[in-house]
Design brief:
Layout: H1 3-14, H2 24-27, E1 36-39, E2 42-45, E3 51-59, E4 66-74, E5 79-85, E6 92-98, E7 109-112, E8 115-117, H3 119-122, E9 145-148, E10 154-155, E11 158-165, H4 168-171, E12 178-181, H5 183-191, H6 197-207
Parallel strand pairs: 4-10, 5-11
Antiparallel strand pairs: 1-2, 2-3, 3-4, 5-6, 5-8, 6-7, 6-12, 9-11
Length: about 210
């Protein structure tokens, strides 16, 4: 097994995330008692940050002429995705990112870009810390490319992507969940299904 695969296996083994499906009625509540509730007829946070679930009625010339469905609407504007590339070594700094929707058998861990965050995360609206590497964006003017995310599930969800040229020396030591990947290793990771969708879209900027 190649070095990056061994490293990713270690990251997955070290994952402590536990995800259990539960009834929505258990996690929803009144303002001041639960962060999530039925806000103005839709499911969302009482502080109106992050995202909400809304009802949509659609008429279209598709498999059926009309239908109704819930959709996820992001309330905090553009998502932000940044991929660091060393212009000298042509290596990319990736993170092993744990998300509850990733497969349980993988420890809920997939390879992700250097930085992947919502505006609310960048502003620490959850009351916690800013995401690691958020400081790389501070005071920088970047060329952003916007991609729409799955319009069958999300309503108006757009993420902005950029590649940051930074040397490994300027970044310093990687965090425990970070690793520099070569182009060849990235191609292997893509083919093995080890990358999340944000990394794949960020790579599209670099390779097309």
């Amino acid at each position: 097994m190649a070095m990056w695969q061994e490293w990713l296996a270690e990251q997955r083994d070290a994952s402590t995330m536990e995800v259990t499906e539960t009834e929505l009625e258990r996690i929803l509540g009144a303002q001041g008692k639960k962060p999530w509730g039925m806000v103005a007829g839709n499911l969302g946070r009482w502080d109106q940050r992050f995202w909400r679930v809304i009802g949509m009625s659609i008429i279209a010339k598709r498999e059926v002429p009309a239908w109704e469905q819930p959709m996820v609407e992001v309330l905090d504007g553009l998502g932000t995705v940044a991929l660091v590339c060393d212009p000298n070594s042509h290596r990319y700094l990736l993170q092993a990112k744990t998300e509850p929707g990733n497969k349980k058998k993988d420890g809920h861990v997939l390879l992700a870009p250097t930085l992947q965050a919502s505006r609310a995360n960048l502003e620490a609206a959850h009351g916690g810390k800013r995401p690691p590497r958020a400081e790389l964006l501070d005071g920088r003017e970047l060329r952003w490319t916007e991609f729409v995310q799955d319009g069958g599930i999300f309503h108006g969800k757009v993420n902005r992507y950029a590649v940051l040229l930074k040397t490994e020396q300027s970044i310093g030591d990687p965090q425990p969940n970070e690793r520099w990947f070569t182009h060849a290793e990235l191609r292997e990771a893509v083919r093995e299904g080890a990358c999340n969708e944000h990394l794949l879209q960020a790579l599209a900027l670099e390779f097309v």
